[in-house]
Amino acid sequence: MSFFNKMKGGGQSPPVVGLSEILWSWIGAFCGILPVAWLNYNLFGETDFVFIIGSFGASAVLIYGAIKSPLAQPRNLMGGHIISAIVGVAVFKMFGTHLWLASPLAVATAIAAMHATKTLHPPGGATALIAVIGSQKIHALGFYYAFIPVGVSAFIMLAVALSVNNLCKTRKYPEFWF
Predict the structure, then answer these.
(1) If you count DSSP H runs as helices and E runs as strands, how many of each does the chain have, helices first?
(2) What is the pTM for the complete model shown?
(3) What is the DSSP code string of 98-147?
(4) How confident is the model at residue 1 (pLDDT cuts 50, 70, 90)?
């Protein structure tokens, strides 16, 4: 098959999602982001701690909207974010004066590390990138970034996912832990 023929696709479009699934995904995402955002803006708003980062929005899509995906499972959520955060901070510390190099290096290395540890979670790539291109508040956290906001916030979102995703009779989360 030629290079360009591969780009035609050929698989079928995913099936329509029912209203119940849409509603439970919405409830999960709202309830998962709410405590993280509340912590960020109300409890720690005047400090250097940052509890909410952009990659958590993508995690919400996976852990509340695509709960059967291997990429949405607890090991992937927690490990993918924390490992990627550590990679991102390390890359920033080494190459932070050259953001044009640090940015792709952080994302590529985070992907490799997630693959190697069986924790692939696509938002982890953004978590690594945020460690490089984030604000002074993010940079000031150093390796604490991997634990606050990343670890704590991911754990809060996981706790909500375990609760909300199992309230509905037709949903089961997680599919696996390890």
Answers:
(1) 7, 0
(2) 0.93
(3) -HHHHHHHHHHHHHHHHHHTT---THHHHHHHHHHHS-HHHHHHGGGGGI
(4) low
